């Protein structure tokens, strides 16, 4: 835990030392919010496809974008950070320190995750305060779903990081998967709107279950109401986490045997 | 110094695979043998030098000891801990420094950078701060502790790396080419600092270098490595004496005729004499004497008696390169040895 805090502190120090970039990162969500708002208004009421918030597409896409950012961040950040650290030459010096793989992974994830939480809060606050959405929210079901889904995505991120360690290049599976998830996982438009044959594929994607559970919770769904999504995500997490940790440590061992650890 | 081995390698070999990444998964083509059955035993408190030319395998061995590489064969132990099976515990006991590493964020101060690394070693809060300032003081960076590393010179960065390696007060300190890319003055200063502040007490230190003077100044014992093999282990003075059967002297002389030089060459006790013209008037005579320095006063007298002048005279010790040439040459061909010194 304290290792994670040290990473957080350092990542924050570096992030905030680039003042303009930091400022920019805090401003862009506002621009995106504006865009979403006007696009959503133009599309208007789609209660035929969207059941929450009286079929408001603005509410739908705000949730989709805000949470997809947080969750897919869990997948993207780990390989990205590992790659950056290899490039900076910092991976080896941290690996000679006595830290465990799990600790390393959560540590390099923490700061980017926190940033995405800040962005998510901005999106949700806009919907909640300015547009009056989600006033009957059940926070406990939203948070539980979020935790289960984030852990699932972190595990996928660890797989992807293992890939980067072994093959040095951005993992194509991840890139395809991340884009694909957003499209068919219900972030931008409802899964119901997909062609029938795609719906089973959508069910394999954690984002689908996460967003459906989160939307239900935001609409007042209790933990019992979101139990199906919660159970599905928990099963995914329970299967993926040990497998991902194994893959990551296997990749490290292999890189240590072939001497490719510091290369990128 | 106690007799317990703190760093120990048994038949450690490292063969890097030719193909890495994708291709390596399908076909393993054995690549270069970077280490070939290396056996070393370094005792507690020893300052041990690993000397070798570029590509000898020094960094490879250091990385195996610091758990960044897993050897293809053999076993390495740090304080009794197998570095492969017990890597995590072994890492707690070691501090490592690579000359070419970029381990700091230049936008952050030395203190911030080191606070981060302290946390990786389980040192936190006030204790971490105290330790960070302590190690920065040890390497003489107290004054610039809060300066961004951007503003550090290469020498200061190197000292900051030493500070980092000392954070966990390691039982074993490994320094790979600590002096690389430093100017001679900075290198000499750093050497002093290492001798006075770092290689003290019970700490076992492994230093790799290809600078002989550094090894002589710092190390109790050295091993020569070339082509991935340990060629010779021992105290430098012993190794030098063992190698230097012919004493080599340099004498700068003037006012000598060819005939008198030939007479010197023929004098008893002189195995070989090379003449190197210096500035038209003077010559440097490289004398290869058969036993030791006994012949030197006689040689000086002869020069003076034949009307010459002696500008300077002194022993020339084998340089690292020469010792290398001898050691490596020996392992191939014993005859080489006669020709190489001088
Ligand atoms: N990761 C690697 N993959 C493949 N070959 C490597 C790798 N690292 C080192 N080698 C090879 O292994 C041999 C030993 O290299 P090493 O870096 O250990 O030498 P060194 O003694 O540290 O040399 P230098 O004085 O140049 O630092 C070299 O021939 C080098 O090309
Ligand atoms: Mg090296």
Quick synopsis:
The complex is a heterodimer of chains A (264) and B (342). With 264 residues, chain A is an all-alpha fold.
Word description of this protein:
- In chain A, helix 2 packs antiparallel against helix 3, helix 3 packs parallel to helix 6 and helix 6 runs antiparallel to helix 9.
- Chain A has ten helices and no strands.
- With 264 residues, chain A is mostly helical.
- Chain B has 342 residues and is an alpha/beta fold.
- Chain B has two domains: 237 residues, P-loop containing nucleotide triphosphate hydrolases (Rossmann fold, 3-Layer(aba) Sandwich), CATH 3.40.50; 71 residues, ACT domain (Alpha-Beta Plaits, 2-Layer Sandwich), CATH 3.30.70.260.
- In chain B, the strands form three sheets. In chain B, strands 6-7-8-3-9-10 form a six-stranded mixed beta sheet, sandwiched between helices. In chain B, strands 2-1-4-5 form a four-stranded antiparallel beta sheet, covered by helices on one side.
- In chain B, helix 7 links the parallel strand 7 and strand 8.
- The interface between A and B is large, with 36 and 38 residues.
- The structure holds adenosine-5'-triphosphate and magnesium ion.
- The site of magnesium ion (MG) has 4 residues of chain B, from helix 2.
CATH topology of the largest domain in chain B: Rossmann fold
The portion of residues assigned to helices of chain B is 25-40%
What string, H for helix and E for strand, traces the elements of chain A in order?
Answer: HHHHHHHHHH
What proportion strand of chain A? under 5%
Query: How many structural domains can be distinguished in the coordinates of chain A?
Result: 1
What would the average pLDDT of chain A be, to the nearest integer? Answer: 88
């Amino acid at each position: 835990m304290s290792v994670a805090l040290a990473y957080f502190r350092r990542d924050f120090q570096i992030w905030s030392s680039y003042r303009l970039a930091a400022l920019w990162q805090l401003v862009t969500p506002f621009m995106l919010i504006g865009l979403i708002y006007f696009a959503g208004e133009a599309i208007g009421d789609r209660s035929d496809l969207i059941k929450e918030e009286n079929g408001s597409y603005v509410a739908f896409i705000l949730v989709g974008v805000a949470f997809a950012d947080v969750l897919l961040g869990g997948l993207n950040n780990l390989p990205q950070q590992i790659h950056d650290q290899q490039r900076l030459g910092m991976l080896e010096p941290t690996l000679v320190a006595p830290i465990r793989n799990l600790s390393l992974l959560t540590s390099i994830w923490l700061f980017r995750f926190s940033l995405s939480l800040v962005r998510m809060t901005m999106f949700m606050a806009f919907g909640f305060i300015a547009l009056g959405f989600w006033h009957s929210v059940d926070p406990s079901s939203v948070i539980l779903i979020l935790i289960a889904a984030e852990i699932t995505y972190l595990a996928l991120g660890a797989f992807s990081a293992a890939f980067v360690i072994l093959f040095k290049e951005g993992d194509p599976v991840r890139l395809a998967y991340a884009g694909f998830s957003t499209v068919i996982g219900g972030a931008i438009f409802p899964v119901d709107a997909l062609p029938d044959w795609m719906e089973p594929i959508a069910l394999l994607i954690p984002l689908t279950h996460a967003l459906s559970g989160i939307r239900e919770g935001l609409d007042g769904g209790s933990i019992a109401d979101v139990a199906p999504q919660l159970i599905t995500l928990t099963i995914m997490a329970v299967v993926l986490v040990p497998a991902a940790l194994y893959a990551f440590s296997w990749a490290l061992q292999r890189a240590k045997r072939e001497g490719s650890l510091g290369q990128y | 110094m106690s007799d317990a081995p703190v760093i120990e390698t048994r038949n450690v070999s490292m063969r890097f695979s030719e193909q890495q990444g994708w291709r390596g998964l399908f076909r393993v083509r054995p690549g270069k043998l970077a280490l070939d059955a290396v056996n070393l035993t370094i005792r507690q408190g020893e300052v041990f030098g690993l000397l070798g030319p570029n590509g000898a395998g020094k960094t490879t061995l250091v990385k195996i000891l610091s758990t960044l590489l897993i050897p293809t064969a053999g076993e390495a132990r740090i304080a009794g801990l197998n570095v492969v099976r017990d890597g995590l515990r072994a890492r707690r006991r070691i501090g490592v420094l690579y000359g070419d590493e970029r381990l700091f964020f230049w936008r952050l101060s030395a203190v911030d950078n080191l606070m981060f690394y302290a946390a990786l070693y389980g040192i936190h809060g006030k204790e971490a701060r105290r330790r960070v300032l302590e190690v920065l003081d040890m390497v003489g960076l107290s004054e610039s502790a809060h300066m961004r590393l951007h503003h550090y010179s290469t020498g200061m960065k190197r000292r900051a790396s030493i500070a980092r390696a000392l954070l966990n007060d390691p039982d074993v300190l490994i320094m790979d080419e600590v002096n690389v890319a430093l100017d001679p003055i900075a290198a000499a200063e750093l050497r002093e600092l290492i001798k006075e502040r770092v290689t003290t007490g019970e700490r076992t230190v492994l230093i790799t270098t290809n600078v002989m003077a550094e090894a002589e100044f710092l190390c109790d014992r050295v091993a020569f490595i070339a082509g991935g093999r340990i060629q010779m282990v021992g105290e430098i003075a012993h190794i030098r004496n063992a190698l230097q059967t012919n004493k080599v002297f340099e004498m700068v002389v003037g006012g000598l005729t060819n005939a008198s030089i030939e007479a010197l060459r023929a004098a008893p006790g002189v195995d070989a004499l090379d003449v190197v013209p210096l500035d038209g008037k003077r010559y440097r005579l490289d004398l290869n004497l058969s036993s030791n320095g006994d012949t030197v006063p006689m040689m000086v007298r002869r020069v003076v008696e034949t009307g010459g002048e002696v500008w300077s005279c002194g022993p020339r010790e084998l340089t690292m390169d020469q010792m290398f040439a001898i050691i490596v040459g020996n392992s191939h061909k014993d005859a080489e040895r006669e020709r190489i010194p001088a």
